[in-house]
Amino acid sequence: MDEITGTVLYDGNDDNSASALLSEYDDRKSRSTDDAVTMQAAVCLTLGAVLLVLHFMYPETAKALLAELKKYMSDTSFVVKNPIDTVISYLHSR
Question: Residue 79 above 80 pLDDT?
Fold first, then answer.
């Protein structure tokens, strides 16, 4: 088996230069909010499609799931406790 060896030459105009990497990072950073919105939309559309299919195939199950979803939407308490509030309450109790 032949061993492949080579020399890597540095090119100042290469795509791996610091300025190119920084601009790529900035581009990705600015798209992150769009990614979150897109993901939320995809989850909502998927959930709606699942409920619609369940409505026609299993109406009782769809009604129960929709009632559970409405209960979670109207609940004002937090599903997951905020860790910062937990740390603050722990520090105040000491």
Answer: no
- Distance, in Å, from the CA atom of 15 to the CA atom of 17, rounded to the nearest integer, reads 6
Contact at 8 Å (CB) between 20 and 14?
yes
How many Å from the N-terminal Cα to the C-terminal Cα in the chain? 68
DSSP label of 79: S
Phi, psi of 89 (to 5 degrees): -65, -35
| 9-35 mean pLDDT | 65
For residue 85, the tally of other CB atoms under 10 A from its CB is 10
Exposure class string for 37-70: b at 16+ Cβ within 10 A, else e: eeeeeeeeeeeeeeeeebeeeeeeebeebeeeee
- Residue 41 or 78, more confident: 41
Collect all residues with Cβ–Cβ distance below 8 Å to 47 and sequence separation of at least 6.
69
